[in-house]
Design a protein that fits this description.
The chain is α+β, with helices and mostly antiparallel strands and 261 residues long. It has nine helices and ten strands. Helix 1 runs antiparallel to helix 2. It is globular. Keywords: DNA-binding, Repressor, Transcription, Transcription regulation. GO terms for molecular function: DNA-binding transcription factor activity; sequence-specific DNA binding. This is HTH-type transcriptional regulator RipA.
């Protein structure tokens, strides 16, 4: 992952200026699948979030799926590593352990909506002396709200046969192939795959795929796509089937997540 870094070291703050809780904002892109980030830790808390890539992060004995429009808060000192499942752009924000108002002690998922995304872009360019910084930072922290666990987590299999299927479905949730077709693709029997999916993810293949589709649908709806267009984009031929699955997974109708100005 190639990253451009905009740093705000405390020592660079002019005398009398408020100390920014942001140490650095990194932005970059990955040009290929399977870019691996080796396990590491750092003393400062970080927020990593996806603009257009899809990544998986292993932290605190758990795999986190980070699709576009979502991020993961990683507290200082927590070991983590990961891989890029779909090439694209991403960003990372490092915070001062001493002045950051967020005190989450465990990896925590967040949604990065259009306003938060624009705030990050503004802060990336704004200098320490910019009078808008304190206001922009305060609004940024107000918008960083922890998501419920079930809203961010989609278990990522570790067995290479079901992981290959999972990665393809994350990259393209509209893929219609059932296990019989996937069995030829990964050279494993349908019976084996049917056994591995629940063991690796806690869900049957069909239920896991539904979770991935609804996860992708939430971001499309938030970005302004219609219900019908979203249904087609994530693999549902009939909007009624999509609405039913959406309600079953989230407890709400898709209209709840539609972007409104």
């Amino acid at each position: 992952m190639r990253m451009a870094v905009n740093q705000y070291p405390t020592t660079a703050s002019p005398v009398g200026a408020p100390v920014s809780p942001i140490l650095s904002i990194d932005r970059g892109s990955s040009d290929q699948y399977d870019t691996v980030i080796e396990t590491h830790a750092h003393p400062e808390p970080k927020l990593i979030w996806s603009v257009s890539a899809t990544a998986t992060v292993h932290a605190a004995a758990r795999d986190w799926l980070i699709p576009p429009g979502y991020g993961l808060w990683i507290p200082g000192g927590v070991a983590h590593g990961g891989a890029v499942l779909r090439a694209g752009e991403g960003s990372a924000v490092a915070f001062s352990p001493d002045s950051c108002p967020i005190t989450w002690t465990r990896p925590t998922g967040v949604a990065v909506g259009p306003l938060l995304r624009e705030l990050f872009a503004h802060l990336y360019l704004a200098s320490h002396q910019d009078p808008s910084r304190p206001h922009a930072e305060a609004l940024m922290f107000a918008l960083l709200v922890a998501l419920p666990t079930h809203d961010i987590h989609v278990a990522v299999p570790t067995d290479p046969r079901v992981r290959a299927i999972a990665e393809r479905l994350v990259a393209d949730p509209s893929d219609q192939r059932e296990l019989a077709a996937w069995s030829d693709h990964v050279h494993a029997s349908v019976r084996t795959l049917s056994r591995l999916f629940p063991r690796e993810t806690g869900l049957s293949f069909a239920r896991w795929r539904t979770q991935v589709r609804i996860r992708a649908a939430i971001q499309l709806l938030a970005d302004g796509a219609s219900v019908n267009a979203t249904a087609r984009a994530v693999g549902y031929r009939k909007p009624s089937a999509f609405i039913s699955a959406f309600r079953r997974v989230t407890g709400h109708t898709p209209g709840t997540y539609l972007h409104t100005d």
